Fold this protein.
Amino acid sequence: MGVAVEGAAVEGVPVTTAETAVETIQREMTIFARRARASAGRMHPELSLVSYTLLGHLEESGGCRATDLAAHYALDKSTVSRQVAALERAGLIERRLDPEDHRVQVLHLTGAGQEILAQVTESRRAAFRERLADWPEADLVRFAGYLERYNAGTSAGSAGD
Amino acid sequence: MGVAVEGAAVEGVPVTTAETAVETIQREMTIFARRARASAGRMHPELSLVSYTLLGHLEESGGCRATDLAAHYALDKSTVSRQVAALERAGLIERRLDPEDHRVQVLHLTGAGQEILAQVTESRRAAFRERLADWPEADLVRFAGYLERYNAGTSAGSAGD
DNA sequence: CGGTCTAGTTGTATAGTACAACTTGCCAGT
DNA sequence: ACTGGCAAGTTGTACTATACAACTAGACCG
């Protein structure tokens, strides 16, 4: 790794400022992950974190296949199949048979799906705004940049993939 | 909220740099949460994210009650009870009856528990180090600070609570 | 055509979780 | 001292998300 280690580290004890910072990042990311996990199921009466993510992807992509969702989010196709079935049952998405390939179902948001997605997005946005309300703009921008950079890293970490 | 909004925002469309940054933070935190959730169960053959967290808390606190764990992590006491039972079965923690109050079991890490916890911590640390290897030290320090500040916020956010 | 690949579904199992009902022990008020 | 209520933990039950494996249906290649 590229971070210099000055002096012998005794079983993982950080010896540089950088190591201390990495330590803190690990700890705080873990805290965040735990909290996120705890609230993932009840972020919205209609929508779990996974459903929300899938719906968001459908909106961004303007419709895609279940297989694409599975690949993109590293979920099993059976898992996606059941999630999709639930979302369809709830009337939030619809399936359109691909005329070119009858194995394929292209998934699209319905009007109701767009509506719920917008609602949840807005409520999440409000929560984040609230939480970040007293941050100076410069810090917000830098924090956003760091997060993007972190997530863009090749997903090798056991804590972030 | 304290972030200035200049001009009418059309249904949540950000109109300032700060709004854009909040938007990005929300999106990236969501991505992180999803990935963390996906890997929470398989971060270690022995230890889920929750077990790891509980063990870590026991180490920090030097022993506490199941009820404290439940309160601290917003888990049901039955959930903690089963987790604790599993950790005890695995020989990672032990229960000591509180002599002052026989309803209470004070939980302590065993030697094996300390060992496994150290292993997992080290492997997580290595993953983070790896991922952050090419970050300048100044950025690491700032990122760490931002995360601490974010998590320290009163847990009102649906994505971070 | 026939073999193989791909998309998706369904059966089954597991983990983590919550809620409710229960047991045991503590304590305070009468 | 009894008794009623509160606190700590356990257990029964149910639900959700997930993975893996077996299967069906369609496409494509030779």
